[in-house]
Amino acid sequence: MPKYPWQPYSPLRTHDFDDGVFVDGPQPGNLFVCRNCNRRFKFDSAAHKTWAVGKGRTYFALHDSVSSRWITQPCSGSPNEQDEEDSKRVKPRLMNAAQKLKRSA
């Protein structure tokens, strides 16, 4: 896999990403973290899809509006306050049957 899986014209190419690390879990994919602005993205090579993810060990997908904005914006060059707020806007997750049973017990 090339260092960055995105097309040459993508604004994501303006970021200085570390090497992608595969992260397993409910939303598997390669995790890319920009060394300059600290934005985090996951890339699913099977689906050819990229989305923004929050901080923490789970790297849950951020709300679609945040993900769309981050993917289309070039790197700001440094972390900013708006990104800190955005990184808390995690997309609601659907509960699976086991989680529903556990909550109802």
Please provide the count of β strands: 4
How would you classify the quaternary structure? single chain
* Major β-sheet profile: 4 strands, antiparallel
Number of helices: 3
Helix content: 10-25%
The main sheet orders its strands as 1-2-3-4
Helix and strand composition category: alpha+beta
Q: Which features would summarize this protein structure in a list?
A:
105 residues; 17% strand; alpha+beta; four-stranded antiparallel β-sheet; 3 helices
Can you describe this structure?
With 105 residues, the chain is of the alpha+beta class. It has one domain (11-104). Helices cover 22% and strands 17% of the residues. The protein has 3 helices and 4 strands; from the N terminus they run E-E-E-E-H-H-H. The protein has a 4-stranded antiparallel β-sheet with strand order 1-2-3-4. A hairpin with a 5-residue loop joins strand 1 and strand 2 (29-33). The longest helix is centred in the middle third of the chain and has 9 residues, at 64-72.
